[in-house]
Records
---
Amino acid sequence: MSDVTKIVATAPQERLARDWVLVLAAAGIASEVERRGREWDVIVDADDADRAAEAVTAYETETVPTRAADQPLDEYGRTWGGVVAGMLLVLASRLVESSSSATALFRAGEARADAIVGGEIWRAVTALTLHTDAPHLLSNVVTGTLVATAVCFAVGPGVGAWLLLVTGASGNWATAMLHGAGHHAVGASTAIFGGVGVLVGLAIVRRQRRAWVPLAAGLALLGFLGTGQRADLGAHFFGFVAGVVTGTAIAPAPVLRSRAAQWLLALAALSAVGGCWLLAIERNISPG
């Protein structure tokens, strides 16, 4: 951009300003977002100001009728669900490491494809709680806390816990079905990408005509974070897809407002994980 710039639009939310930047980029106009107090300005070169203003106005004219401004987004609100999820990942790792049967527990809980195909489907859940080393755990705790917080903010801690659990387990199961014997996987990242998919699915339904924005952002995040050297791309992809499908399906439903019901659902999800571990221990670790 040149030294001479001009503010062409001001948004009350950063997300809206970023949408305008995408619109301008599609029109071949370079732009930037700068925060000013509690508002976000979209800035372009002075020579492009008139064309940019027309593009933003045309976009708003098209989308405002579908926005239902008098109907705010139905979200649960602030919750500690994401922080609790991160703490539980650390606790699960410590419990396994401190056990005298740590190696046996790890082998009993990992997502071993041949075992899952053979009927040990609980491994799709237990594997979400295992990590290979401290860096692996730390990265998943950080990103998992952020994603789980966003999911729980949208749908509540109980519903969010089940969505993360189901999409993560679905990703591991689908990966096992695809790979067959020889494939092993551990880590919460499949559930994390399931959570990203849920957020994308919710946004697709709520944005309607701008559905491509969250979908493109989710795919970009999958490509950026989910394809590292040690990453299980298949599990990440299937978890993401499961999340998008699930998020799209539940988006029209009203948010469960009862805090008691939400935390009961969260406890039920935690109990389900515990039950899967009991099955893993019973079937794979001999007494004594």
---
Amino acid sequence: MSSTRDVRDLEGRRIGVPESRQLDLFADMIERRGAQAVRCPLVDIRDTPDEAHVGRWLDEVIEHGLDDMIWLTGEGVRRLRSFAERDTPERLTRLVERLDQARAITRGPKPGRELRALKLRSDLAATQPTTAGVIEALADMDLTGHRVGVQLYGTDPNRPLMDFLADKQAEIHAVAPYIYADEAETPQVLDFIDTIVAGQLDAVAFTSSPQIKRLYKVARANERADALTPALNGLCVAAVGPLVGERLEAEGVQVTLMPDSNYFMKPLVRAMVAHFNAASS
């Protein structure tokens, strides 16, 4: 059983938390360990405004089924579930029945977890939780004429995956059930950037790529980018998974830590605890 000392193993640490979707949950995790969460929710996740397109996609899948379904995010599974059950529970039941008949390909552990909540399975996991990992997992498979559903996210058309499926002569049925929207006002983001540049944080924990995009968009628009990158490289930068890590590295930011395999918030917190314990020993 953990002692009080063990539980508060982030005592005195100030950790930047740009998470939005589960901000309170994540902040509570680190605060219970003694840290001070410095919050700046950079993005919000909302249903796509093109609800008609999602409705048509659901009708198409329910009516004709799929051979394969590619799930890129857990959020996508949740949003499509929500869209389906808004009309009647029967619509969700029919969708789940159709999805159960398709081979499910998952990019990472999060969509797999959300599928299990629907009593569905992941039949094929990406070799790594990236688009490249999905493509590699499907590279040797004959998809000619297959009806392939693809759950996209945000406004990213994911051209590499779409081009790969087109080259495989698959019949592509793509749907993007949610978008990213700016949440924090620009002055809040600037205050957050200034806090980082002033060296007032011990760590920043990034949990999605759009957070980094928004942070640097504001920094560049306000001539802070040149100061932001070296400031981040002077503290602990935590990334929840490889996609987030790649986006940080593209900005010249060195990732200090990342969970080994389970790309969720609890493993991210444990990785930060291990990092700071090692630093203080």
---
Amino acid sequence: MAHNRHKRSLHARRSARAVKIAAPLAVLATLAPVSVGVLSGDIDPSLNMSGVAFAGSAGSADRVPEVSRSVPRLVPTAAELERVARKSATDKAIKNASERLWTTEDVKVWSGPGRDATLKGELKAAREVLVTGRRDKGRAEIVQQREARWIDESVLSTYKPIIASSGLSMAPCPRTSGDIGLTQKATYVLRSVCAAFPQISTYGGRDGHGEHVNGEAIDIMTSDYALGTAIAEFLIAHSSEFGIEDVIWRQQIWMPGYGWKGMSNRGSATANHYDHVHVKVY
């Protein structure tokens, strides 16, 4: 009996010793292929192995690999949100644009309404433009080649302006019989207006009343508001070349240095110059 107990005790000590030896050997057996893999290039040497449990390691059954929290969260800034909102509003304005207006004079085209806007080009007078209806800082938003652009809102009109088709001229007017008794200066005005505004077919020259007596005045016959206004502006723009003393149109008189002033009622459309533009030279 005592002999058997001795054998069992000896067997237990040998088993415990075997476990002590086997555990490190198991770890070495596990690490060896890993090391070989690293050296052979099969495993990335920079790989973090701290979260991997090896055979025989303490607490390996309870260890869970940690999730990295080093990736930053992408939160848009206030400026980015504002840019997105502004672009969305612009896209919507372009999509809904339907009104068309006309430029009354040459105008610069800008990227935006602010002072920091960049110059994008120029539009000539009498150009039709598509407008969005948005206005800011004295500029109006237009659509140009599917892009939002801004121009001076004061040059926009619902009517197509009438622009002189050519500059000053001394070529004879084919729509009058001669120069209708005018002085040389007045003839220059007549021929230039005739060349610039071929719509006009009737002119009044020298006669026995008022400023027409000496052949220094011309009546340019039209009742059309837009056409008559364009002619009056043409005359004023070249007043120094023509030597103009006054221009009368629709009961108003323009004189160099004074601008437009109202006139008293003379009793009829003709007397009040609603059916013609009157111009007199020195």
